[in-house]
Design brief:
- It is a single chain.
- The chain is mainly beta.
- It has helices at residues 2-19, 334-339, and strands at 24-25, 30-38, 43-49, 51-55, 59-71, 79-92, 97-109, 115-126, 130-140, 144-155, 158-168, 170-179, 188-199, 207-219, 222-229, 239-249, 291-302, 312-316, 348-353, 356-361, 364-365, 373-377, 400-404, 408-412, 423-427, 429-432, 441-446, 450-454, 457-459, 463-468, 472-476, 479-481, 485-490, 494-497, 501-503, 509-510.
């Protein structure tokens, strides 16, 4: 933006000196304007100063500092904005019109406390009967600020945060106005029609529409303004009213033994100023860096397990077709997912079984898996990861059941020499074998420090579970029933918590405890 401003200034200086070899410092009066605008959403107060810097009374370069405060009440400061502009205006005596171009740098602190910046440029045409102006706005620097976390959303193999952002918008506005024939003793009345458009790649939709404005000056120093907008998306209201007071200030008169406020008496009159006398009036442009609220999925901000580790979901469905990727968008078949993830290296490898019946499954062997903590859960069992999937997305609820058709259920027996620190958790799933005398073991687990079976059933196996070297095996709110034998323990510690129930042909445990 500094380069743009410098380029503009050089162009302006060149134009001034080419068109007027008698250019001088502080050549004319510019207006100081102070006022406010309000609607049923906020009130804004501002002060604006056009300072003719160099040139002549007919052509000069000006600078334009401006400050505003926005709040729920007069002089409130829930938000504020500073603007610094420069431009050139030229009065054509032949046409009795003013042409102008300008460039601005705007910095705003929004109501949320976020800070945004933008550059802007505009053109203007001012005459006795018709005014036309157009302005464009482009964000610079950081264009988005995270405000809060709005929730989570499934994406790929992860559940990622949906964060609330405030984002700055690029856009433009334009208007054309017509002076209404009006008795000069009553002042000056103008009507304007225009259009506005503001958008951002991150905003949910563009803010755009038609606008209309009425401007009445009973005196030259007082302007009353009322605007209507096609919708309330721009300002939080479809109307806006304001008033401001302007007085002329000529800093050059300090060095010319004249009054700095020379010409003020003319501002107390109702007769409209001549076109040339408008050279120092306020530039009409949007005084805000426009922002929007946007919900953005943040792939780097992912849901974590209760222990703080990242969660890697392999999503499976009883209705999935062959070759599914195992993502939320494209679930996999259960047997293919289990067979294809041995080499997955994640702190948490979570097989999420969407609700339904998984029938005719082969034995699942996790022995050679590389992941640290392995979860086999349904959405109802996700609480054992410390999360509630139903609060993340509708449909992520319910239980799953696995019916095995082979001589085993789930096997996890890594080599004890590897001093494995792995664990296995099964939650919210019903495991069913083919009968209580077929030689099958529902759970064959060995050489891991932790195992949990929670909120599920284990039934119709010859042996419900066989544990070897498991210091901490937990059954929580589980049902172990209709097995030939409930448990077989060797060098293992086991606990039963919650409403765990046994109902087997033989409930006892063989071997060490």
């Amino acid at each position: 933006m500094k380069k743009i401003a410098l380029t503009l200034c050089l162009m302006c200086f060149s134009a001034v000196f080419v068109t007027n070899l008698e250019a001088k410092l502080l050549p004319a009066s510019g207006e100081i304007t102070g006022g406010g605008i309000t609607n049923d959403n906020y009130t804004d107060t501002f002060i604006d100063w056009i300072i003719p810097l160099i040139g002549s009374k007919n052509t000069f370069i000006f600078i334009n500092p401006r400050a505003s405060m926005t709040g729920s009440s007069l002089f409130g400061d829930d938000a504020d904005e500073l603007n610094a502009g420069a431009g050139i205006r030229h009065y054509s005596e032949t046409l009795n019109v003013i042409f102008g171009i300008n460039a601005y740098y705007d910095a705003r602190k929004s109501q949320t406390g976020s800070k945004f910046r933008q550059s802007g440029a505009g053109v203007e045409f001012l005459s006795k009967w018709v005014d036309v102006r157009a302005n464009g706005y482009v964000p610079v620097g950081d264009s988005e600020v995270k405000i809060a976390q709005a929730g989570f959303a499934p994406m790929g193999h992860r559940i990622v945060a949906v964060n609330q952002y405030e984002v700055s918008m690029h856009g433009f506005d334009c208007e054309a106005g017509l002076k209404i024939p009006f008795p000069e003793m009553l002042g000056q009345l103008k009507i304007f029609g225009g259009y506005y458009f503001f958008d951002s790649d991150k905003a949910p939709e563009a803010v755009k529409g038609a606008k209309g404005r009425i401007e009445y000056k009973p005196l030259n120093l007082l302007r009353l303004n009322f605007a209507m907008y096609e919708n309330d998306k721009l300002n939080g209201s479809n109307w806006q009213a304001g008033a401001d007071i302007s007085i002329p200030v000529n800093l050059g008169n300090i060095f010319r033994n004249g009054s700095v406020f020379k010409g003020t008496s003319g501002y107390l009159k109702s007769k409209p100023k001549e076109v040339k006398q408008r050279m120092g009036e306020m530039v009409q442009r949007d005084m805000y860096v426009r922002t929007a609220s946007a919900k953005i999925t943040d792939q780097d901000d992912i849901l974590k397990a209760a222990n703080g580790d990242d969660i890697y979901f392999v999503v499976v469905s009883s209705n999935a077709s062959a070759g599914g990727a195992g993502t939320f968008e494209n679930p996999a078949k259960l047997d293919e997912a289990v067979a294809g993830n041995e080499a997955t290296v994640e702190d948490n490898l979570t097989f999420l079984l969407l609700s339904g019946a998984y029938q005719g499954m082969p034995a699942f062997n996790f022995t050679n898996y590389l992941s640290k903590d392995i979860y086999l859960i349904s959405p109802d069992g996700a609480t054992y990861l410390g999360i509630d999937l139903s609060a993340i997305q509708a449909g992520l609820t319910g239980r799953a059941s696995i019916d095995f058709n082979s001589g085993a259920g789930i096997v996890f027996t890594p080599d004890i020499s590897a001093a494995s620190q792995q664990s296995l958790t099964i939650g919210g799933i019903d495991l069913t074998g083919t009968g209580d005398s077929d030689g099958a073991t529902g759970l064959n687990i060995a050489n891991i420090p932790d195992f949990k079976f929670a909120s599920g059933t284990l039934s119709r196996f010859e042996t419900g579970a066989n544990f070897l070297n498991i210091p901490n095996a937990v059954f929580l709110d589980a049902t172990i029933s209709y097995n030939g034998r409930g448990l077989n323990l060797e060098n293992s510690g086991i606990s039963f918590e919650g409403n765990t129930e046994f109902s087997n042909n033989t409930n006892g445990a063989m071997g060490g405890s």
